TrEMBL record:
The keyword Transport applies. It comes from the Eukaryota. Residues 711-725 have a biased composition (Basic and acidic residues). Belongs to the NDC1 family. The chain crosses the membrane at residues 81-101, 113-131, 163-182, 203-223, 243-274, 286-304, 310-332. This is Nucleoporin protein Ndc1-Nup.
Length: 791
């Protein structure tokens, strides 16, 4: 079927939507002289027939929809999340009490279990739930590597507060654990009469383990992007619920030991400063005995014979902390992910869609709007009929939806890149904007898909007095980009840590020498440039007898400068680089360096699948927007009496088709890359197998002669890829398949929602779509959908 413009259909629809009206203009010459006297001003008579009645503006969502949503979520927290978290903490406290062997009778056991569970709930579960609630967002963090993800997450305003809250919660529970566990002697000071103020290394190790546990849990939250609103309830896996906290607690133990090691080194450096050791020695003197290594091992020697017991208690504390956090987050996600049904009034939902205070409430309003419009048994059609009864509501639905889809479509087109800088406006555009002062621009069609700005339903207002003219340029006020506050001097520990860091002073020594060498070479370039043209100039008109001695006179000067300045600097640079490399080799053994290199490569490697997922940070919101628009458009065939929705069908369908095409195009590019690498790997494996079987036989070598046999073997070895090449291709193919899997997970929901929406609209309207005009590419795609649906 061909898609063409039906003039009669569109004319009848436009006439039904906007009925024409005529009026006779007021003519002052026909009025009486009494009304034209200067004493009586001329005033137009108000008309009650031709006056336009504007619909009242929609109230903001903060007054209509958001209080309802907040009430539902608060009720779920009070009735479900907090009570169930308390019950889980009491059960965990009972297991902890039983493992500690506390309670001789049942009553004492119950009191201890309830008390420990309540403290777990107050110190661990409640902070995790509050932090999870405060950090909810619908936009994922766009990043292609774990390093970029952590950097972007920490740049958000609430991330540092989340980390500090988790650290404080872990430290408080560690202190409570030290109080209730009297067998391991987690006191603040050691039990010594000679040194009563020495800090207890057991307590320091326990608190360090808790800090490491909190840091690892925050890293898990960041890498899994768990601050995003849970659209679906998580699946409970008892095995992972116990194994993950155990592994996290085990990983926290070496981090705690590393923290003590860094603290010991920093403390040893602080002891070199004057006066400061007088105040530190009464509390930390036992940490610096026996030199560097002696002090490091002395930290663990102070544990005595119970060093394994101290490590075991630290493991239990970290395990309990992580387990309670995981249980609390699971309960929160399960209760919040349930559908929210607040109202059946379309105006309330439309106000939340068009005038939200945050993206979260807008996304929840879109989800509820989709659920209401998609109900069965005629409820969805009744809701759509109530929404479309007021023609002023539909523009407040379609415009925010298309703008949101357009913004995400532009991100897909840019492949997740940043938005381009806006072009500067010209003088003609400014004059055009001033000429439309006081005029209201209302277009019957929807805004151009993907445009950042639109005039749909907007009024162009401007003040001639406040708008500067193009002839008088305005000098911009310069901004102070330097800090206006006095910087506080850094602490000695911070100075030492910065110097020993990878990008500190020690690590930048080779770069300093490189810069010095480059500076000297740049300084010598003008000398060479000054003498070289002179020699070339004199060599032309003058004889070679004059140019030769001049070059011989310049060469010793240049060689002397190189030998006196450049060569010593290069030698010093090489020596410093060797010293730094030897220091790294001495401090870090080869296995540690290899492990660090692998970890650093994994941490900084950019992943195409993650980049694809980052290009659609609001993919769940896009899916519900598409579903809501499709349901309302499908119901408009019978519920829309004025044709307000049908005017926007071409724009909406074009938006869906282009969005789906961009998603499928990105996935197709990744699939083509996977197929190319798989074919290359298959060819490499075939050639490797042929080489292993020995394609050059001994009889042919003897018949050809010794020289010909050697040439054949050399050519065969050149054609055969090495084993490392096959392994590299296998590794590359595995990475591409992993990226493709992440891309399918990211795009799957949106693509399925777009396909379902297009199929619903095509199935509902069928041949009536021929009344609309579509671009050729979009028309071909819709024709394909019609052939598939079979209407």
């Amino acid at each position: 079927m061909a898609f063409q413009q039906s003039s009669s259909y569109r004319a009848s629809m436009a006439s039904s939507a906007f009925p024409a009206s005529t009026s006779t203009p007021f003519n002052p010459s026909t009025s009486s002289s009494a009304f034209a006297s200067p004493a009586t001003p001329i005033r137009p008579l108000p008309s009650t027939i031709l006056s336009s009645k504007h619909a009242p503006p929609l109230p903001p969502a903060s007054q209509t929809y958001e209080p309802l949503v907040k009430g539902v979520l608060a009720s779920r927290l009070a009735r479900w999340v907090f009570p169930w978290a308390l019950a889980a903490c009491i059960a965990i406290g009972g297991a902890w009490t039983w493992g500690a062997g506390v309670g001789e009778d049942f009553a004492e056991f119950v009191r201890s279990a309830v008390g420990r569970g309540f403290v777990l709930w107050m110190l661990v579960a409640v902070p995790a739930i509050v932090v999870r609630k405060a950090g909810l967002t619908v936009s994922r963090t766009p990043a292609s590597s774990p390093a970029q993800l952590l950097r972007a997450t920490m740049a958000r305003p609430g991330s540092p507060r989340t980390l500090l809250s988790l650290l404080g919660s872990a430290v408080l529970f560690g202190a409570f654990f030290a109080i209730v566990d009297s067998k391991s002697r987690f006191t603040v000071f050691v039990n010594s009469r000679k040194h009563p103020h020495y800090l207890n290394p057991r307590l320091l190790f326990l608190l360090s383990t808790q800090l490491a546990t909190a840091a690892l849990f925050f890293l898990r939250v960041v890498l899994r992007d768990r601050m995003v609103f849970p659209w679906t309830a998580p699946q409970l896996n008892p095995t992972s619920l116990t194994i993950v906290p155990a592994l996290s607690s085990v990983a926290a133990l070496p981090l705690a030991g590393l923290t003590l090691l860094v603290g010991r080194i920093t403390l040893g450096l602080l002891y070199w400063l004057p006066v400061l050791p007088i105040f530190l020695k009464p509390f930390t003197g036992h940490f610096v005995r026996g030199g560097l290594l002696g002090g490091v091992f002395g930290v663990f020697n102070v544990f005595g014979s119970r060093v394994l017991g101290v490590i075991g208690q630290a493991f239990i504390a970290g395990f309990l902390t992580t387990l309670v956090w995981d249980v609390a987050c699971y309960l929160f996600d399960s209760c919040v992910a349930m559908p929210i049904q607040t109202t059946t009034d379309p105006a309330v939902l439309v106000s939340a869609v068009s005038k939200p205070s945050s993206e979260l409430f807008q996304a929840l309003a879109w989800r509820e709007l989709e659920a209401r419009a998609g109900e069965e048994d005629g409820k969805g059609e009744a809701f759509a009929r109530a929404l479309l009864a007021d023609t002023a509501l539909w523009p407040h639905v379609v415009r925010p939806g298309l703008l949101l889809l357009g913004e995400d479509y532009q991100k897909l087109v840019r492949r997740g890149g940043p938005a381009p800088a806006p072009a500067p406006s010209s003088a003609t555009e400014e004059s055009a904007s001033q000429s439309t002062f006081g005029q209201s621009t209302f277009s019957s069609s929807t805004p151009s898909f993907g445009a950042s700005q639109s005039t749909f339903g907007q009024s162009t207002l401007g003040a001639a007095s406040s708008t500067p003219s193009a002839s008088t340029p305005v000098k911009p006020t310069p901004l102070l980009r330097a800090s206006i506050f006095k910087q506080a001097p850094p602490s000695p520990a911070r100075v030492v840590a910065d110097a020993l860091a990878a990008d500190g002073v020690v690590g930048r020594v080779p770069d300093v020498f490189n810069g010095a060498v480059e500076g000297v070479e740049k300084a010598l370039h003008p000398v060479e440039a000054a003498f070289s043209p002179l020699g070339k100039t004199l060599a032309g008109p003058l004889s070679k007898s004059i140019a030769g001695p001049l070059e011989r006179a310049v060469s010793p000067v240049k060689d002397a400068l190189h030998e006196a300045v450049v060569e010593p600097v290069r030698e010093t640079r090489g020596a410093v680089a060797e010293i730094v490399a030897k220091i790294h080799d001495l401090v870090l053994p080869a296995p540690v360096r290899e492990a660090y290199g692998s970890l650093h490569a994994w941490w900084t490697r950019e992943r195409a699948g993650r980049a694809a997922a980052g290009a659609l940070p609001r993919r769940e919101t896009d899916a519900v927007v598409v579903g809501a628009l499709a349901h309302i458009i499908a119901h408009s065939l019978t519920a829309d009496r004025f044709g307000a929705v049908q005017r926007d069908i071409p724009r909406v369908m074009e938006a869906m088709v282009r969005f789906l095409g961009e998603v499928e195009g990105w996935v197709g590019e990744m699939e083509a890359r996977r197929v190319a690498v798989a074919e290359e790997l298959e060819r490499a494996r075939i050639v490797r197998d042929l080489e292993g079987k020995g394609r050059v036989e001994k009889g042919e070598d003897e018949g050809r002669g010794e020289d010909e046999g050697e040439d054949a073997r050399a050519a065969e070895s050149e054609r055969a890829p090495p084993k490392e090449n096959v392994e590299a291709l296998e590794h590359q193919l595995a990475l591409i398949e992993d990226d493709l899997r992440h891309a399918h997970e990211a795009f799957g929901g949106v693509a399925e929602a777009l396909k379902t929406a297009l199929a619903r609209i095509v199935r509902t309207f069928g041949a009536k779509l021929s009344a609309f005009r579509f671009p050729p590419v979009v028309a071909a795609k819709i024709q394909g959908w019609i052939d598939v649906v079979g209407v």
